[in-house]
Amino acid sequence: MNIFYFLFFLGVKSEWIDFPRADQYLPDGKFVPGNGNSFDKCRRRFDLGDADYLRYNGMQEFDRAMQHLEEKYGFMTSEHQYISRKDEGDRVIVFERGNLVFVFNFHWTSSYSDYRVGCLKPGKYKVVLDSDDPLFGGFSRISHDAEYFTSDGWYDKRPQSFMIYTPSRTAVVYALVEDEVVPVEE
User: Fold this and answer.
1) Are the CB atoms for 17 and 9 separated by under 8 Å?
2) Rounded to the nearest 10 degrees, what angle do helices 56-73 and 3-12 cross at?
3) Which of 41, 144, 160, 164 is deepest in the core (most CB within 10 A)?
4) Residues 6 or more apart from 86 whose CB is under 8 A from it?
5) Cβ contact 90:164 at 8 Å
6) 3-class DSSP assignment, residue 168
7) Is 128's pLDDT higher than 70?
8) Long-range contacts made by residues 40-48, C-beta under 8 angstroms, separation at least 24?
9) Cα of 113 vs its chain's centroid, Å
10) Which residues form the Alpha-amylase/branching enzyme C-terminal all beta domain (predicted)?
11) Does residue 34 contact residue 23 with C-beta atoms inside 8 Å?
């Protein structure tokens, strides 16, 4: 299963989902009560995203932003996928999908400055999406105006790398900035 769909599913569960089931006895004889084959909790509540006083609103906006990111960059259908870092100590995962670099910091309290991230292509990278945006209920700790320039040299089995700030409990997506062609006046 794709990590985005998995994380999205975990993030948008508005309440528990309890599928209809009957009482049963386990092989060791223990009794496990069912729910009377009830469909009451076997549903999704999509109305919760419209409630401004709940955090589900931010999740709905994040889902919308992910959809726009896919439309612009087409990373979900790209064949290029590479996981460059899975650091248990830092609780950081870095991977490439299409022309994007994704950085997930799952650490509960540790933010990292000057964190080196390996990448395939040289050039200038910019933040195109971050979960710390106030629109998504975040704290705005990441600048969207910053530019990240790659350095030559192998890092995490990637030929290029750049330095970032990765706050705790965030996901940030970086995109390679294509050179803008400026028309020449004659």
Assistant:
1) no
2) 160
3) 164
4) 93
5) no
6) coil
7) yes
8) 41/15, 41/16, 41/17, 42/17, 42/18, 43/17, 44/14, 44/17, 45/14, 45/15, 48/14
9) 19
10) 82-176
11) yes
